[in-house]
Write a structure and sequence with these properties.
The complex is a heterodimer. Chain A has a single domain, classed as Serine Threonine Protein Phosphatase 5, Tetratricopeptide repeat (Alpha Horseshoe). Helix content of chain A is 46%, strand content 4%. Chain A is built from 17 helices and six strands. Chain A is globular and about 80 Å long. The N and C termini of chain A lie far apart (81 Å). Chain B has eight helices and 61 strands. Chain B is globular. Chain B starts with 17 loop residues before the first strand and ends with a strand. The chains are: A mainly alpha, B mainly beta. Chains A and B meet through helix 1, helix 3, strand 2 and helix 16 of A and strand 34, strand 37, strand 41, strand 42 and strand 48 of B.
Chain lengths: 465, 1070
């Protein structure tokens, strides 16, 4: 019938989308997606500034009152890490490994950079949920991956990170301009990797002190120095603008307010960062009660600086390194310097990043309520409070502080009738509904393993009250 | 196609003797004369109508033998042979009433015409006259209640999309819509609605492109209901097919025949499907009036009372006419009340006043005729101008069509057709969450007067909204609805060309060849706008789609009478189909520089890469059919088709679709007065669906560059290079019984369809790096019964009454999903999901449920008075599938008058109402206000005393005793709405009984018309559609409105109300 001349087989080739791409755009995508996520304020996914009680909402209080299910927040976070960050990193790594044309040192650097990004992501996942799929993850042929023990994932990532650190060759090229955080500066990657190792180390301090000390002391000499940080360089042109601007300015809505827990503490300490963070209301800085229905006009708002479109977003900075060192010193680890020195350095570094003058910083540090020696409580309270203040806008990291150290002591939100919606501040996110429905057996096992899939189950490093 | 057979020696008559045929025509049963019946000699294109006594005369008939065709509406057409060999030949005849229309000719697959009584499978001819008269621009919407076993659900509002599903959804995620074929050309019925819109998020309903069909052009419409009937169409026929033939000229006709049709319609909202509001409290989320600094004076410390204008809810302070407050009007600088307080009262005009009276004007002219020497032509033009019920909504449809043919020789006929359709619309309705409908149904301020919003918009064309931010610097959650309609409207423009060229060649009297090349193509442009001053970022987006489908078809038709009793017919052929769809989607980035200029180059920032797509699909097919008829009582039909599809992997891309049907008219062997006709039929078929284009190989997703760094990401759905075609295996049995000379006629079918090897993206754990992957698995079963019953209880010369009842029930079952996958989720929106587990029906609604006591009552928390809510959000709370659908049509004819009344029923089928979930939570609806069992306002605080507010929710304490605890109803976190209710509380039974259509027609009699001269036929009719919802359970909404066309359903939020139409139609034939 002459059909042989009408071949159909080639019609199914998509001419407008690639079946193969280089590794670089996959790596860039993972960096941008991650960097954007940790600064998100979209209530469907980015509610950590609420969890840390830095921010609260005006009218709709579902999220500050810990309704994670209504919007599928856990699902969205989970999918973002695995589907939008980790799988692209894995894909990039596979392409690099099989690329024979790549010089060996560049290949090593690229793979090590990917490893650092993977560690960053997996540690977050554990800190949000507890046990998560790890060894069986990222394989479409296994649609129902088993979960791994949270601490095991930590230790495994610590190993990988050590390997990555030893593989970096700062004299060779990396991802170059495809590297959104450091523009291919391998020295900065080494420092970022070591700083991340310290972050992991301090998380282990209460459960595995020896591993914690080893990690911190080995990493400290090569961590971020003053003025250095891993930053997400948001741009003035959409769509890569700072999510805070998007929520506070671009939306035209009045959804968020500075929360009372942070404003009150800063007021008590006469914090010089307040004018940089907030506007005044009748001459005062007034925070809105966390989780309450709040009238926008009755409270301080965010400052123009917080609302700046192209403000860089911190992923890990020198101030955090100093606070880790302060805590390490306080715990008697073999780090140079005293707890007080590092504590002061941490506060100073953060304040400087906000443009606070040396004189104001000095005055702040001199206050007995701030000075390390005289500030109230033990090292957990002293460092916990100041580190929590320094992590303002870094919601996910900020929410970890009260969980791990027990300080600052935050109160759970109240409902309209004045009753607490939950007996305590939540200590983890429940697993996604999609896991409950599409990976049920493993989901059940994981819930059992961590002590129940509830919002108040304490994670393995959350042992202090 | 066999018109050649009618071609006799023309032009030789003059030399011959002529005679006259005369006679009388009577009803076989009543022996009453049949008036205005048609008596016609096709071979001479000559005929006459019967007069008031049933008499007719055809003169100047050359001597010879002729086929005389006698037809009358509602009667079986009869053909008799007449020999004219003397000056006057008398032919007296009777016709039988034909309620079953058994003698009707239907057009089956590939244009093969058959009589209904010969069909061994289920097909139904649709009465298109009523559709034409109804003035409905959407021919498929008009099918509701007219086809048994067919789901016809149209999204309310101008040009709404229509869901056409026969016998239930077979495919989990694939296409379940019936194939549409117009004059042998597959007619694209594409939707442009986004997936997120069909899952309940906001979006504009762009309708489907089947809308381009002009009802006035339709000559006949046949619905091939099951796979067996449509198996010749291969993969596209898996969901049945609708075969449309348009009006065409023929060589036998006069040179010019004109048919003119005009209609004028009005449409208005059915208020029972739109909210009414509580009238006691104004805007707010709890609390009293705001008391805040007076912005109109310099003096500090001067404070004023204002409404809670920043809330999009109505749990605010109680109205008090003695209280003067500053409202949104007081803060609008262009408002006469600017700077002035106003009494705090309920508004005069409620949101239902937002809707206007829509209009629909249609003019259609169709000219056709025969030209000497075997030529014929049809020229049609239709113009349809619709104004919707929403402000600033307009749809204009123009259609120009031409077709013509020529009988080149007595063997060869050629014909061609070209249609041009242009559709332009402005302001199609948006539906779903965060649209105007969501605003009015879920998030309204009950102190707002809608007419004041209208006046405020028109004063300055600014977004003077009722919902301001706290500092009144702009809109908070919602725009002024008029601003939204007049500034943020979308437009769509489509140019469509369809056409074909065809040649038929008669090789022998039993064999003919036909070749056809056809094209269906359109360019569709959608433009969306968000004006400067609106909520969100201003912007402009344009989506262009270019669609083209080419079909090259060659068929050999055979038809042979082997003996007096035994005949065979069928076809053998091939079809080559090529489809190409190209799309470009581009938008501004970061806002518009110049307000009101909607152009990509008015973007604040450089625009991002447009999204460019191209899809190609090719299917090569071979098909053959064989039909056998023995003595008119035994019919056997066999069909086979082989498809080779480009969207499947090379090693799996060929597949076969066989079908076999048998029909046995047993009444031939029974001599019974009661049983006049009886037939049994059975058929079996295997058809299927090909894979979606590009579902074999993964491609990477492009994201916006970050500086100079390009971004690519792996897709969220893992494709599958080993896909096989979906297969639907079906069988059906049917029965047709006619009683008392077919005065009562029953047509019933039972079918069973299983769709195996479903191609669908199953949800998988996101931890795999993908959230879904394509698999070939699963088995969805649809079983059901459809029954049609026709009867004519009264027939006299002047009056007749015909009843037509249809009833169908479909039961679906998910028998199997993929290995390791026990749940398939179609959509999850705001905590409620639509999906299926193995063993479920198709489309089960899941969410949070009540916690039930063993006595079956929901448990109320005795501390709070609120319902206890299941800990899992995956409880089954409903099922979208109706128990049954039915319709009842009554047709009355009295002399020249005819009246038809159509009632349409859907029984059962649950709907989760997001409107009630939020709208009760925001205190809009009357149930949230008023007084409680103590006679106190519900919204007063709950106390221990007699002055307590709050409500006692129906339910029991944990020990099973009746609940006595009053639940607080003071705010959104009270007894009503989303805060303290399980999703199950807002699931409603979606049953409805609707008075779908009432039509009254007056047909002018030929005598009257002969006075006028040129007219050969005329009628005037009035048709009302969706006049009355006789029964429904869901409050303030139309249960028929869910998510519109698509595979979802059972979920309602932000839908349009039902719309009533009234149309006056005039039809003239010259």
């Amino acid at each position: 019938m002459g059909l042989a001349s009408c071949d159909v087989t080639r019609l199914n080739e998509n001419e407008k989308a690639p079946t193969n791409v280089p590794a670089d755009p996959l790596f860039s995508n993972a960096q941008v997606t991650y960097g954007n996520f940790v600064h998100q304020t979209d209530v469907n996914i980015g509610i950590f500034k609420l969890m840390a009680q830095y921010w609260t909402t005006t009218t709709y209080t579902d999220e500050p009152r810990y309704n994670l299910r209504g919007r599928g927040i856990s699902d969205n976070i989970w999918d973002l890490y695995y589907r939008d960050v980790l799988i692209d990193l894995k894909e990039a790594a596979e392409k690099i490994s099989t690329n024979e044309a790549l010089p060996a040192a560049e290949k090593q650097n690229k793979l090590a950079s990917i490893e650092v990004m993977q560690t960053l992501a997996y540690i977050d996942l554990v800190n949000i949920f507890g046990n998560v799929p790890y060894t069986e993850a990222l394989n479409f042929e296994n649609p129902q991956p088993a979960y791994d023990d949270a601490e095991t994932i930590y230790m495994s990532q610590l190993d990988s990170l050590n390997t990555a650190i030893s593989n970096f060759d700062p004299s060779a090229a990396g991802f170059g301009s495809a590297d959104v955080y450091f523009n291919g500066d391998m020295n900065m990657w080494v420092k970022f990797a070591n700083s991340l190792k310290m972050r992991i180390g301090i998380m282990l301090a209460d459960v595995n002190p020896s591993a914690a000390e080893t990690a911190i002391t080995s990493a400290a000499p090569n961590a971020f120095d003053e003025g250095e940080a891993a930053m997400m360089p948001f741009t003035a042109a959409p769509p890569h603008t700072n999510p805070n601007w998007e929520a506070l300015v671009q939306s035209g809505r009045d959804d968020y307010l500075p929360a009372a827990p942070v404003v009150n503490r800063m007021n008590n300490l006469d914090d010089p960062r307040r004018p940089v963070f907030f506007t005044k209301l009748a001459g005062e800085y007034v925070g809105a009660p966390y989780g309450a229905s709040n009238n926008y006009n009755n409270y301080s708002h965010f400052s123009a600086e917080i609302e700046r479109k192209d403000r860089d977003g911190t992923i890990l900075d020198y101030a955090e390194v100093e606070f880790i060192l302060a805590e390490a010193a306080a715990r008697g680890y073999g780090v140079s310097g005293t707890a007080a020195q590092h504590y002061n350095n941490g506060i100073t570094a953060d304040m400087k990043s906000w443009g606070i003058s040396d004189a104001e910083i000095a005055a702040y540090l001199a206050q007995p309520e701030v000075a390390y020696a005289t500030a109230s409580g033990g090292f957990r309270e002293k460092i916990g409070t100041q580190k929590w203040l320094a992590l303002f806008l870094q919601g996910l990291q900020g929410w970890i502080i009260p969980r791990r150290l027990g300080y600052p002591a935050l109160d759970p939100p109240k409902d309209g009738s004045g009753n607490e919606v939950i007996p305590k501040v939540i200590t983890r996110f429940t697993y996604p509904v999609s896991e409950e429905t599409f990976n049920q057996e493993n989901y059940n096992a994981a819930g059992e393993a961590i002590g129940g899939d509830t919002r108040t189950t304490e994670l393995f490093w959350d042992v202090e009250d | 196609m066999f018109s050649i057979a009618f071609l006799l020696c023309m032009g030789t008559a003059l030399a011959q003797n002529t005679g006259t045929i005369e006679g009388q025509l009577l009803d076989k049963q009543t022996q009453e004369p049949l008036i205005s019946a048609n008596v016609f000699i096709p071979s001479l294109s000559k005929g006459a109508a019967t007069d008031a006594n049933g008499n007719f005369t055809i003169s100047d008939v050359p001597y010879g033998t002729y086929e005389l065709r006698i037809s009358y509406i509602g009667y079986t057409t009869k053909t008799v042979s007449v020999t004219v060999d003397q000056p006057t030949v008398t032919v007296n005849q009777t016709l039988s009433q034909d309620v079953a229309q058994l003698g009707d000719v239907v057009v089956t697959a590939y244009g093969v015409e058959r009589q209904v009584n010969e069909l061994p499978y289920s097909a139904q001819k649709v009465n298109t006259e009523e559709i034409t008269r109804s003035g409905n621009a959407n021919v498929f919407d008009a099918l509701s209640g007219r086809v048994s076993g067919m789901k016809v659900e149209t999204a309310s509002g101008m040009g709404g999309s229509t869901d056409l599903v026969l016998r239930g959804e077979n495919s989990l995620t694939g296409n379940n819509q019936a194939l549409i074929v117009v004059d042998g050309v597959p007619y694209a019925n594409k939707r442009f609605n986004t997936a997120s819109q069909e899952a309940g998020f906001d979006g504009i309903d762009y309708g489907n492109t089947g809308f381009d069909i002009n009802p006035q052009d339709i000559e006949s419409m046949t619905v091939l209901k099951g796979p067996a009937a449509a198996a010749l169409y291969g993969s596209r026929g898996a969901n049945g097919a609708i075969i449309i033939e348009t009006k065409k000229g023929s060589p036998e006709q006069d040179l010019v025949n004109v048919r003119y049709n005009a209609s004028v319609g009005a449409s208005m909202v059915d208020e029972s499907t739109f909210p009414t509001y509580q009238m006691e409290y104004g805007q707010g989320y709890g609390g009293g009036l705001y008391y805040q600094a007076n912005p109109f004076t310099e003096a500090s410390g001067d404070s004023i009372f204002t409404t809670r204008y920043d809330a999009d809810a109505s749990f605010g302070p109680a109205f008090n006419p003695d209280q003067m407050v500053y409202t949104w009007q007081s803060f609008d600088p262009n408002n006469p009340n600017y700077g002035q307080p106003m009494p705090y009262t309920a508004p005069e005009n409620q949101p239902v006043e937002f809707f206007e009276t829509g209009t629909n004007i249609q003019n259609s002219i169709n000219i056709n005729g025969g030209i000497a020497d075997g030529g014929y032509y049809t020229l049609g033009y239709t113009q349809n101008n619709v104004r919707g019920v929403l402000p600033n909504s307009e749809l204009d449809k123009y259609k120009l069509s031409f077709s013509g043919g020529y009988e080149v020789s007595d063997k060869l006929t050629v014909d061609a057709s070209i249609d041009y359709a242009k559709t332009d619309d402005i302001g199609r309705p948006a539906r779903g969450y965060s649209t105007i409908m969501s605003e009015m149904r879920q998030w309204w301020g009950t102190n707002v007067d809608i007419m004041e919003q209208k006046a405020a918009y028109f004063r300055a064309k600014q977004n003077a909204t009722w919902n301001l931010t706290g500092d009144r610097s702009g809109p908070f959650y919602w725009n002024n609805p008029y601003f939204e309609r007049y500034e943020n409207f979308a437009t769509q423009s489509r140019d469509r060309y369809t056409g074909y060229a065809k040649a038929d060649y008669e090789i022998a009297d039993w064999l003919s060849l036909s070749g056809q090349v056809s094209l269906d193509s359109f360019t569709n442009l959608i433009e969306e706008r968000n004006a400067v001053g609106s909520t969100g970022v201003s912007g402009y987006e344009r989506r262009t789609t270019n669609y083209a489908e080419y079909n090259y078809k060659m068929l050999a038709n055979y038809n042979k009478q082997l003996t007096d009793r035994f005949s065979i017919d069928g076809l053998v052929g091939f079809n080559i189909r090529r489809q190409n769809i190209q799309g470009i989607d581009a938008s501004t980035n970061g806002g518009l520089v110049v307000p009101g200029l909607y152009s990509l180059n008015n973007s604040v920032n450089s625009i991002l890469y447009p999204d460019e797509t191209e899809e190609n699909l090719g299917v090569n097919s071979l098909m053959a059919s064989f039909n056998m008829n023995y003595d008119d009582y035994l019919n056997i039909a066999l069909t086979g088709r082989r498809d080779q599809s480009s969207s499947l992997p090379e090693e799996n891309n060929v597949y076969y679709y066989p079908s076999a049907s048998v029909g046995f008219t047993f009444s031939e062997f029974i001599d019974s007065d009661a049983l006049s006709f009886g037939k049994l039929r059975a058929s079996w078929a295997q058809v299927g669906n090909t894979a979606p284009v590009y579902s074999l190989t993964d491609t990477y997703t492009r994201r916006a560059n970050f500086g100079s760094a390009g971004l690519y990401s792996l897709p969220g759905t893992k494709n599958n290079p080993t896909l096989k075609p979906e297969i639907t295996k079906s069988w059906e049995v049917g029965m047709q019984l006619g009683f008392i000379n077919d005065a009562i006629f029953l047509d019933a079918t039972y079918y069973d369809e299983n769709t195996l090897n479903q191609i669908f993206a199953v949800n998988i754990s996101g931890a795999s790096g993908y959230t879904s992957k394509f698999v070939n698995a699963g088995n969805v079963e649809n079983r059901g019964i459809s029954v049609g019953l026709t009867g004519r209880p009264v027939t006299t010369a002047d009056f007749s009454w015909t009843i037509n009842a249809k009833w169908s029930k479909n039961m679906s079952k998910i028998k199997e999903l993929a290995p390791g996958v026990d749940y398939f989720e179609q959509a999850r929106t705001q905590g409620v999901s639509i999906g299926s587990k193995v063993g479920d029906e198709y489309g089960v609604i899941r969410g949070t449920d009540y916690v039930y006591h063993e006595n079956g009552q929901p448990i109320v928390d005795p501390e709070t008075g609120f319902y206890k809510i299941s800990s899992s959000s995956e409880e089954v709370i409903g099922n979208k599938n109706p128990d049954w659908r039915g319709s009842l049509s009554n047709q009355f004819n009295y002399k020249n008058w005819s009246l038809n009344v159509l009632v349409d029923v859907r029984w059962g089928g649950d709907i989760f109402s997001l409107d009630q979930w939020y709208g009760q939570g925001t205190g809009l609806y009357p149930i949230t206000a008023g007084t409680n069992d103590l006679g106190n306002p519900k919204r007063d605080p709950v106390t221990d005393g007699e002055d307590s507010g709050g409500v006692i929710l129906p339910g029991v304490n944990p020990d099973g005793t009746p609940n006595q605890t009053r639940a607080s109803a003071t705010n959104y976190d009270g007894a009503y709405g989303w805060s303290n209710s399980p999703n199950a509380r807002y699931v409603y039974d979606g049953s409805f009984v609707k008075l779908r259509e009432v039509g009254l027609t007056y047909n002018f009699s030929p005598e009257t018309l002969s006075d006028v001269g040129v007219l050969s036929g005329a009628s005037v009719s009035v048709t009302g559609r969706n006049l009355w919802i006789i029964h429904k359970n869901i409050p303030h909404a139309d249960p028929e409105q869910t998510l519109g066309a698509g595979n979802l359903g059972g979920y309602q939020g932000g839908n349009m109300p039902a719309i009533r139409n009234l149309t006056l139609n005039l039809q003239l034939n010259f």
